[in-house]
Write a structure and sequence with these properties.
alpha+beta; four-stranded antiparallel beta sheet; 4 helices; 4 strands; globular
Length: 152
């Protein structure tokens, strides 16, 4: 489980750094990086895509989903691949959750002009990559889902 913790800590640190830099450099500005990415600071009081904005749901639901996922995964012997995926999701979750807990909102700063309704942050990107890796694991890597032996 060291890989999960190390990956999560790395994501958490990178997310915190990116949010601190965004607060310092992006307030009231938009920075275009070619035609693919814009950097702009927004504050999201909801969950993904602003769902549940200004609601306790945004504070309560994500931890419940993470706890349910961890409870389901405990019965499997996680490979390095699935540990990395879990670390990405956990680190992203912690980055956004701590931001929401401390500030009452999540800082988002990365926008793709071809998705004008979607602004995200490093934590969101880590979660997306982690969930994608988990999906790949479920579909194409049966060795990742070997159950732990039960000792009685």
């Amino acid at each position: 489980m060291r890989r999960v913790a190390t990956t999560a800590a790395g994501v958490l640190a990178l997310d915190a750094l990116s949010k601190a830099l965004a607060l310092r450099w992006l307030e009231g500005r938009v920075v275009r990086l070619g035609n693919l990415v814009e950097l702009r600071l927004t504050r999201n009081t909801g969950m993904a895509l602003g769902l549940g904005a200004d609601s306790r749901l945004a504070l309560v639901l994500p931890p419940l989903v993470v706890l349910a996922g961890a409870w389901l995964l405990r019965r499997y012997r996680l490979t390095a691949f699935t540990q990395t995926a879990c670390g990405l999701v956990l680190g992203g979750f912690l980055g956004n959750f701590l931001n929401r807990l401390v500030s009452g909102h999540v800082l988002d700063m990365v926008q793709f002009p071809f998705l004008p309704w979607f602004v995200c942050n490093v934590a969101d990107i880590a979660i997306s990559i982690g969930v994608t890796l988990m999906g790949i694991s479920l579909l194409f890597r049966p060795q990742d889902w070997e159950e732990r032996s039960c000792r009685r």
